[in-house]
Hints:
Blueprint: E1 8-19, E2 25-49, E3 52-64, E4 74-77, E5 80-90, E6 95-104
Amino acid sequence: xxxxxxxxxxxxxxxxxxxxxxxxxxxxxxxxxxxxxxxxxxxxxxxxxxxxxxxxxxxxxxxxxxxxxxxxxxxxxxxxxxxxxxxxxxxxxxxxxxxxxxxxx
Length: 105
């Protein structure tokens, strides 16, 4: 993985749930890490599903190794929130490839 190809900035976010002083649950996405990334592919497909017309955007990012990233996290890139669908290890803890998807109805 060459440093010159890591030309995008992404935020990896985790869903957190806490309780305030009054016992009210507070659920929000918080930043887990900010990393430089390489955008491998990005596409938008429109298709007609059973529930109506939908748009699905997919993207794949390569980042340097980061412990603790799971499919429970999401990626924030270019003002969009993308769910992580698949994580692939590159080499022996050299990097990660994150396959993400954004679905809008």
